[in-house]
Amino acid sequence: MEQFVNRDSVEDLKKRIVNCIKILNEEGVFELTYGHISCRIPNSDKFLILGHLHESNKNLFDVTEEDIVTMDIEGETLPGEVEAPGERFIHTEVYKRRPEVEAIVHCHPILSTSFSISGVPIMPVNNLGTIFAPEVPIHDYSGQVDTAEKAAAMAETLGNRMAVVLRSHGATIVGSSVEKAALNTLALEHTAKMQLIAHQVGTPRPIPVEETDGIFSEGTKEREYYDTAWDFYSRKYQNHLLKL
Ligand SMILES: [Zn+2]
């Protein structure tokens, strides 16, 4: 984690968001061009978020620092900047309720979303999945979350968890840095994949709640995981990423 914890100027944060977008895009968790990432600007009440790309005819492959805009807690961007996405309230309402959350991903990952269609929660079926224990809540609303009221309801379903799946729509995942939010997004899809495979060969047996704490808790194991995972993905896509 040392490679990015101290790089939190606005310009560096914009590059970090772009790099996370590129990794998630290459890993296939974005549906077509839909999805956005935001993070808090330290020591302020503002946020950085991917602007509404469709206004500039760009897609996620084209994203640069210039596409990252500054948003306030009401979802308004600075004069002259493109608007934040229509579902910007997902971000504002979670930030209002979760002071420890530094970054948020909203996307439409195919496996995680599929579980919500069947009403089956994603469970901690593997060690990494224990970050979602005891389960990933399903928000029973499949429309666009394009008002503060709708987003507040989703944030209530999220509660203090790491992720929430929106029925037949997508997922919202949080983290204590933009890289962790991105890695948690990949972990969610990975866990869903493993649960799906386990279901094909038998009845999945999630890791019991009393065993989840010691497997992947705050401390060395968590730090090692995020460091290793970030190193893996940033090497895998090194030719796509902006230099920090
Ligand atoms: Zn969406």
Automatic annotation (TrEMBL):
Q: Does the keyword Translocase apply?
A: no
Keyword Metal-binding assigned to the entry: answer is yes
Q: Which GO terms describe its molecular function?
A: aldehyde-lyase activity; metal ion binding
Q: What is this protein called?
A: Class II aldolase/adducin family protein
Keyword terms: Lyase, Metal-binding
- Which superkingdom heads the taxonomic lineage of this protein's source? Bacteria
Record InterPro entries = Aldolase_class_II_sugar_metab (IPR050197), Aldolase_II/adducin_N (IPR001303), Aldolase_II/adducin_N_sf (IPR036409)
